[in-house]
Design goal:
By secondary structure, the protein is of the alpha/beta class. It has helices spanning about 10-25, 40-55, 80-90, 110-125, 160-165, 185, 200-210, 235, 245-250, 255-260, and strands spanning about 1-5, 30-35, 60-65, 65-70, 100, 130, 155, 175-180, 190-195, 230. The protein is globular, with a radius of gyration of 17 Å. It starts with a strand and ends with a helix. Bound molecules: 2-phosphoglycolic acid. 2-phosphoglycolic acid binds near residues 37, 38, 39 and 132.
């Protein structure tokens, strides 16, 4: 795990967007795994700016989203489909053949999950998966207790997560159920970029990076992944025991390694 601590969310989002842009420039037909939530918003804004100002070409990428609420139509303002059109698909000019989200309105959710996995298998592997993290250590919507071997399936949200997500619902009525890629599906991405900002994420980050690998902290499974970068602001990093060491590693990175890294 590479833990990279930047002074604030802006700096971390700039680094994240650089990593994504570097991949898209080098491999125009790459497969990106997108996350939703407040955390990656700045990164997405920077990608949109790069597209309009530097003319970066996103027309050959394919994308897969981590999750979607069950029972929200795609035009519902709190659906992740709506979020993605607003913040990513629209600004990057992606066409419908390029992006994939689980369909939370499917009549047969189990079949939808199997088909989503199949699509990832056919078009994948995901070259770069972007992740946020919940206060309870979830990635995607894999809540504590999720099997570390899980694949795309229906999950029930915890009250913590429903409470955290209320702010994104005008009527505060957060669905109980979601479809989410599983931990194993996420782990099959070639590279993972997890972003976390603010005090509220500090405990989850400390457990993810320095705690035992356990289904009780789903993000801790990432300790098994050979290529994970975790971009944090100082607040999210504040409970890490080896904070100074991570800062030292980043400061001392040889130039060739930094170039490869970005
Ligand atoms: P947030 O959510 O980015 O809105 O904090 C992250 C998550 O729940 O995975």
């Amino acid at each position: 795990m590479e833990v990279i601590i930047l002074e604030n969310q802006q700096a971390a989002s700039e680094l994240a967007s650089k990593r994504i842009l570097s991949l898209v420039t080098q491999t125009p037909n790459c497969v990106l795994g997108f996350a939703t939530g407040s955390t990656p918003l700045k990164t997405y804004e920077l990608l949109g700016e790069a597209k309009s100002q530097q003319n970066i070409d996103f027309s050959k990428i394919t994308s897969f989203n981590l999750d979607e609420y069950v029972g929200l139509p795609t035009d519902h303002a709190s659906s992740y489909s709506y979020y993605m059109h607003q913040h990513v698909f629209g600004p990057l000019g992606l066409s419908p053949e390029q992006y994939h989200l689980p369909n939370g309105m499917a009549a047969n959710i189990e079949l939808e999950c199997q088909q989503y996995e199949q699509k990832i298998k056919e078009r994948g592997p995901i070259d770069l998966q972007i992740l946020g993290i919940g206060r309870d250590g979830h990635i995607g919507f894999n809540e504590p207790g999720s099997s570390l071997g899980s694949r795309t399936r229906l999950k029930t949200l915890t009250e913590t997560t429903r409470g955290d997500n209320k702010a994104h619902f005008q009527d505060q009525r957060v669905p109980y159920h979601v479809v989410t890629m599983g931990i194993q599906s996420i782990m099959e991405a070639s590279e993972i970029l997890l972003l976390a900002f603010g005090d509220a994420k500090a405990d989850a980050i400390a457990k993810t990076v320095e705690g035992p690998i356990t289904a009780s902290v789903p993000a801790s499974a990432l300790q098994y992944h050979p290529k994970v970068k975790i971009f944090l602001d100082l607040a999210a990093a504040s409970k890490l025991q080896n904070l100074e060491y991570y800062q030292e590693v980043y400061r001392k990175k040889p130039a060739w390694q930094l170039a490869e890294f970005i």
